[in-house]
Write a structure and sequence with these properties.
By secondary structure, this protein is of the alpha+beta class. The protein has helices spanning about 5-20, 40-45, 135-140, 150-160, 165-170, 180-190, 205-225, and strands spanning about 20-30, 55, 60-65, 70-75, 80-85, 95-100, 110-115, 125-130, 265-270, 270-275. The structure holds a DNA duplex.
Length: about 280
DNA sequence: CGTGCTGTTGCTAG
DNA sequence: ACTAGCAACAGCAC
């Protein structure tokens, strides 16, 4: 489900639901996802703590408490959904977080966030707040596309010595985070750049166009609530609608909305790439 | 029934 | 130094 826009939308919903609330109880239903879950440590350090803020870095969610931050990644199929029950409702429910208002001890207003992940490519981890900058999963991350000023100039600099394809390049999280297969395809279409072009063959002008199209594509997707390609839902269980705006992704064999030629699909570094031969050069 | 895809990321081998 | 390929897994379309 998640590329940057989906995680951003989920973050906003989760933030609304739990920020300022007290994490009363955490229940785990298995010991590992992609990596082992430090269950004892998480229970010890987080139960009874208040959530000061909910943040996103790359595709990681951060629940910041006084000393620690819970780090949650959704992998390919993970989700966090508000439910009415503290009982697991689905087969692939791996954790349930119970929140209460910090001010009251009543059980009336408990909130239950269920972590669900069929494929278990996600992760749940804990990191001290003052160690986040050196946190192993964060140290190698590239820039946040929506925060980075002059993203295009940055891409131009970074691409100069790279012979890999531009699509693989912008999907590389050590260069720029959050751009997965869907948004890489869409941003390249909007920029009129063929996904198979060698990164270092792009002119400065093309890089600047690509940089701004990456930002616009991500922003548009966030506005639409993300892309519910298969089963993405936000924290409230609502789907996103950006798939209605997809120009090329998943449209192989269909007509390009812009020129009417047939959309093609090709494997680039093992990932299916959708593009219009006519509009993208 | 297989078979071959799928939104991620980090490690490995070349 | 860079890059492609793979592994971890469940579900779904064909």
């Amino acid at each position: 489900m998640p590329e940057l826009p989906e995680v951003e939308c989920l973050k906003r919903g989760v933030k609304k639901a739990i920020q300022g609330k007290k994490l009363k109880e955490i229940r785990f239903f298995r010991e590992d996802l992609r990596y082992p879950i430090p269950i004892k440590k998480i229970k010890r350090e987080c139960q009874g703590e208040s959530i000061n803020s909910v943040k996103r870095r790359s595709k990681y969610l951060l629940w910041e408490m006084d000393r620690f931050s819970l780090v949650i990644h959704l992998g390919m199929t993970g989700n966090l959904i508000k439910m009415n029950s503290r009982q697991p409702a689905l087969h692939h429910t791996h954790a349930i977080f119970t929140f209460i208002d910090s001010s009251s001890d009543s059980t009336e207003k408990e909130i239950y966030l269920h972590y669900i992940d069929p494929r278990r490519f996600g992760m749940i981890d804990l990191c001290k707040n003052d160690e986040l900058s050196g946190y192993s999963f964060f140290v190698k991350l590239g820039v946040e596309p929506l925060q980075k000023r002059n993203l295009g100039e940055y891409l131009f600099m970074q691409t100069r010595r790279s012979s890999r394809s531009i699509k693989t390049f912008i999907m590389d999280a050590s260069i720029v985070v959050g751009v997965g297969n869907i948004y890489a395809c869409e941003a390249l279409f909007r920029a009129g750049i063929h996904p198979g072009r060698e990164a270092n063959s792009l002119s400065q002008e093309e890089c600047i166009i690509l940089g701004s199209q990456i930002k616009d594509t991500l922003k548009d997707a966030i506005k639409a609530g993300g892309t519910s390609f298969r089963d993405y839902r936000d924290a409230e269980g609502n789907p996103g609608y950006f798939e209605l705006s997809l120009s090329v992704y998943g449209r192989v064999g269909e007509k390009c909305y812009s020129c009417g030629k047939i959309i093609k699909a090709n494997k680039i570094s093992g990932r299916t790439s959708f593009y219009c031969d006519n509009c993208q050069n």
